[in-house]
Amino acid sequence: QPAPGAPAPAPAPGAPAPAPAGEVSPTPVPSPQRTQSA
After folding, report:
1. CA–CA distance from 7 to each of 11, 13, 15, 20, 21 (Å)?
2. What is the pTM of this model?
3. What is the DSSP letter of 28?
4. Contact in structure between 2 and 8 (CB atoms under 8 Å)
5. Secondary structure of the chain: what % helix, strand, coil (to 5)?
6. From the centroid of its chain, how far is CA 32?
7. Residue ranges under compositional bias (Pro residues) (predicted)?
8. What three-state secondary structure class fits 35?
9. Which in 9, 13, 33, 35 has the greatest CB count within 10 A?
10. Distances (CA, A) of 17 to 11, 25
11. What's the number of CA atoms in the CB half-sphere (13 Å) around residue 21?
């Protein structure tokens, strides 16, 4: 857990972006593909 005010660690290149809290995806996909998820 990062310290308060510290920037979140960036995901590895090509790694699926973590879903926002409350939005649990059954299949993690790259951020660009999640634009249609709404």
Report:
1. 12, 17, 18, 16, 17
2. 0.16
3. -
4. yes
5. 15, 0, 85
6. 11
7. 1-19
8. helix
9. 33
10. 7, 11
11. 0
